C-alpha cells in the first residue's frame, strides 16, 4: 500500500507519496486546494501506486483539508486524519534538524500514518454534516456578538459612565433596558446614533443565534434524543459533541474517547512512584463541552453534587471536577452508542418498509 501525506493550505495542497517501508516515491505534487484537485491527486497517486491501494493521510482536523477529504471519500478512497502534534513529532524525528517546508510536513504526515494505524478515519454523514455547519455558523455569530457587546460596553463606559457587564447584553430584554437608560441620559445626537446602531446590530445577531439554535434542535431531536435527555446537556453542547465526535463507534471504548477529548489523566510514572498529570491536549471544543456540562451538573444535579463532594476529600475541588468530567465521558459514550444504534435500526427499517406515513 502507498501512503500519501497531504499538508493542506487555503489555496494549495502539498502531497508526498511513501512506500510501505517509508521511502519516497516519485516527485511531490503541489495542487490547488478544494475538491477540484481530486482528479489530479488521484491520477498522480495511481501512477505512484501502480494500481495498488492508496491510503490518504491529511494533517489536522476536518478544517482546511475537509473539502478534499470529502471528495477523496466520494471516490472510494481511504482517508485518515493526522493530528498536528503527531505530524510535528515525526517531523522532528525524521526531518532535517530545524528545517520546515510543505514537503517536509507532508512527508511527516505520511510517516505518522505509517507508524500509527489507529488514526481517526474520515467519514461523511449528511445529517451530522448539517449539524456541523449550523454549529460553525452559531460559533461565528456568537463571536461577532461578543465583540460587538465589548465595543458597546466600552463606549457606554466612556460616554455615559455606565458599567454594564458584557454578559448582560446578550438578551433582548437587556437591550430594551439599555435603550431606556440611554434615552434618560440624553446623550448627544451622534453618540446616540452610534449606540442605537450597535444595539440594533446586537438585536439582529441575538435573533440569528436563536434561529440557529432552533434549527439545531430540529435536527438533533431525531439524531441524539438520549444525549439531549442527560442533565446539563442542552442543544448547543449536544450539537458540539455530535459534530466533533461524528461516528462514536470509531472509539472502541469510552477511555479512548476520553483521551481524544483530553479528559483522561496522563500517567507519568517514574522511579516506582505512580502519579498522573493533567492532559492539556485533545479536542478542546469537546473538552470545553464536558467541562461546562460538569459545572452545570455540579450546581443543579443531586448525584453530581454528591459525586464531587465525595471526591473532594482526597482529590481537591479541581480534581473532583476532573473526575466528574471523566465519569461524564462514560455516560455520554454509552448514550451516543445507543442513539447511533437506534438511528441505524430506524434507517434499516425504512429501507425495508419505506418511511412511516
Automatic annotation (TrEMBL):
NCBIfam families: transpos_IS110. InterPro entries: Transp_IS110-like_N (IPR002525), Transpos_IS110 (IPR047650), Transposase_20 (IPR003346). Residues 227-307 form the Transposase IS116/IS110/IS902 C-terminal domain. It comes from the Bacteria. This is IS110 family transposase. Pfam families: DEDD_Tnp_IS110 (PF01548), Transposase_20 (PF02371). Coiled coil: none annotated. Residues 4-157 form the Transposase IS110-like N-terminal domain.
Amino acid at each position: 500500500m502507498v501512503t500519501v501525506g497531504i499538508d493542506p493550505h487555503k489555496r494549495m495542497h502539498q502531497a508526498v507519496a511513501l512506500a510501505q517501508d517509508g521511502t519516497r516515491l516519485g516527485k511531490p505534487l503541489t495542487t490547488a486546494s478544494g475538491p477540484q484537485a481530486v482528479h489530479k491527486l488521484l491520477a498522480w497517486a495511481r501512477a505512484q501506486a501502480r494500481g495498488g491501494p492508496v491510503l490518504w493521510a491529511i494533517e489536522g482536523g476536518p478544517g482546511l483539508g475537509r473539502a478534499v477529504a470529502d471528495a477523496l471519500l466520494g471516490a472510494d478512497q481511504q482517508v485518515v486524519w493526522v493530528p498536528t502534534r503527531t505530524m510535528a513529532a515525526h517531523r522532528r524525528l525524521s526531518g532535517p534538524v530545524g528545517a520546515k517546508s510543505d514537503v517536509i510536513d507532508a512527508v511527516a504526515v505520511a510517516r505518522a500514518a505509517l507508524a500509527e494505524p489507529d488514526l481517526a478515519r474520515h467519514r461523511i454523514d449528511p445529517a451530522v454534516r448539517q449539524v456541523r455547519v449550523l454549529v460553525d455558523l452559531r460559533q461565528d455569530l456568537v463571536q461577532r456578538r461578543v465583540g460587538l457587546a465589548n465595543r458597546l460596553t466600552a463606549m457606554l463606559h466612556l460616554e455615559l459612565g455606565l458599567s454594564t457587564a458584557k454578559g448582560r447584553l446578550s438578551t433582548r430584554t437587556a437591550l430594551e433596558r439599555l435603550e431606556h437608560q440611554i434615552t434618560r441620559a440624553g446623550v448627544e445626537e451622534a453618540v446616540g446614533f452610534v449606540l442605537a446602531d450597535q444595539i440594533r446590530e446586537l438585536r439582529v445577531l441575538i435573533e440569528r443565534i436563536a434561529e440557529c439554535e432552533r434549527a439545531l434542535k430540529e435536527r438533533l431531536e431525531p439524531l441524539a434524543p438520549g444525549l439531549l435527555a442527560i442533565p446539563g446537556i442542552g442543544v448547543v453542547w449536544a450539537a458540539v459533541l455530535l459534530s466533533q465526535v461524528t461516528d462514536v463507534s470509531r472509539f472502541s471504548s469510552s477511555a479512548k474517547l476520553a483521551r481524544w477529548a483530553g479528559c483522561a489523566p496522563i500517567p507519568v510514572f517514574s522511579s516506582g512512584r505512580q502519579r498522573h498529570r493533567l492532559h492539556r491536549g485533545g479536542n478542546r471544543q469537546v473538552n470545553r463541552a464536558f467541562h461546562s456540562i460538569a459545572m452545570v451538573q455540579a450546581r443543579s444535579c443531586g448525584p453530581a453534587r454528591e459525586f464531587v463532594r465525595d471526591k473532594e476529600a482526597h482529590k481537591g475541588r479541581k480534581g473532583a471536577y476532573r473526575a466528574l468530567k471523566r465519569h461524564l465521558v462514560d455516560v455520554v459514550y454509552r448514550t451516543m452508542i445507543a442513539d447511533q444504534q437506534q438511528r441505524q435500526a430506524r434507517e434499516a427499517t425504512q429501507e425495508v418498509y419505506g418511511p412511516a406515513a
